[in-house]
Amino acid sequence: MYSNHTLRPVTSAPVTPVPSWQDEALCAQTGADFFFPEPGSSVREAKSICGRCEMRSACLEYALDNDERFGVWGGLSEKERLQLRRG
């Protein structure tokens, strides 16, 4: 889409590069459904996958640094990450 005044492409948001650890994470091979379940659903499967992932600590660090509020990141649920932030 182009702006009427500048003839430059109009972008809605800056493109953020994917962190390198995400390419190697087990969640990249299984799909997001496990990691972003419906409210009240079990996160057991996601945590099991995270427990075997070598990228778990990088994932958790990313989630905490970027204030990720939904889903399982680094083996922790939303509530667990909130508790960790509160110390």
Automatic annotation (TrEMBL):
Q: How is it modified after translation?
A: Upon Fe-S cluster removal intramolecular disulfide bonds are formed.
User: What are the subcellular locations of this protein?
Assistant: Cytoplasm
Q: Where does [4Fe-4S] cluster bind?
A: C27, C50, C53, C59
Q: Any idea what job this protein has?
A: Acts as a transcriptional regulator. Probably redox-responsive. The apo- but not holo-form probably binds DNA.
Q: Per the database record, which ranges form the 4Fe-4S Wbl-type domain?
A: 26-83
InterPro entries listed in its UniProt record = 4FE4S_WBL (IPR034768), Whib (IPR003482)
Tell me how the cofactor is bound. Answer: Binds 1 [4Fe-4S] cluster per subunit. Following nitrosylation of the [4Fe-4S] cluster binds 1 [4Fe-8(NO)] cluster per subunit.
Instruction: Indicate where this protein is primarily found.
Output: cytoplasm
Its protein name is Transcriptional regulator WhiB
Keywords, A to Z, come to: 4Fe-4S, Cytoplasm, Disulfide bond, DNA-binding, Iron, Iron-sulfur, Metal-binding, Transcription, Transcription regulation
Cofactor(s), names only, from the UniProt record = [4Fe-4S] cluster
- This protein's source sits in the domain of life called Bacteria
**Record family assignment:** Belongs to the WhiB family.
Which Pfam families does this UniProt record tie to the protein? Whib
